[in-house]
Amino acid sequence: MFAMSSLLAFGLCLAQVISAQVYTEPYRPQYHFTPAHGWMNDPNGLLFHDGVYHMYFQYNPGGDTWGNISWGHATSRDLTRWTEQPVALLARGYPNNVTEMFFSGSAVVDTNNTSGFGKPGQTPFVAMYTSYVSTWVNHRVSKVKYWLTCFFLASLCHGAAKWKDCPSEPTIAIDRV
Predict the structure, then answer these.
(1) Distance (Å, rounded) from C-alpha 115 to C-alpha 104?
(2) Whole-prediction pTM value?
(3) Among the options 42, 64, 165, 175, which is catalytic?
(4) At a CB cut-off of 8 Å and minimum separation 6, what does 110 contact?
(5) What's the rounded Cα separation, in Å, for the pair 156 and 162?
(6) CA torsion 39→45→49→52, rounded to 10°?
(7) Which of 7, 51, 141, 163 lies at a C-alpha separation of 20 to 30 Å from 65?
(8) What confidence tens digit (pLDDT) does each residue in 85-127 have?
(9) 3-class DSSP string for 123-142
(10) Burial 31-40 (b: 16+ CB within 10 A, else e)
(11) Residue in 97, 47, 104 with CA at minimum distance from that of residue 76
């Protein structure tokens, strides 16, 4: 009896997984979200708002290896079927002259608008993320390029298409030359 019910449960789960995705590539995961193309890595902001789950993740929209690190975005109503959304935070200068990439971070739904980023009738999402900013500095003998690690804030009013930086200066900057 136990074996029969286990087999039935397995069959139902398998049927749900097969019907949940429309992926047809033989090596693409069929249950977990993957973007249509590009390289993906860590999940960053995992939110639930107005019946929709939002997943933000590290993403290279231009290739299948590390680089041009941006935040991809996908949504789901049931955590099984995901819809890929436009890139949330696109590497600055992409694709030809990337000057800033967006790495690990997190996001929250600011239901009480404690950040002050919301507008009447719109609940803001607020993200804090690590960023590498490419910059040139005079260092002893020559001008050298280096990366400045910063923590930034961004906000998105629910329903808006693009995140915006706020403030324009880093929240925390770690300067190493």
Answers:
(1) 21
(2) 0.72
(3) 42
(4) 117, 118, 123, 124, 125, 126, 155
(5) 7
(6) 20
(7) 163
(8) 999 889 888 999 888 888 888 888 888 988 887 788 888 888 8
(9) CEEEEEEEEEEEEEEEECCE
(10) eebbbeebbb
(11) 47
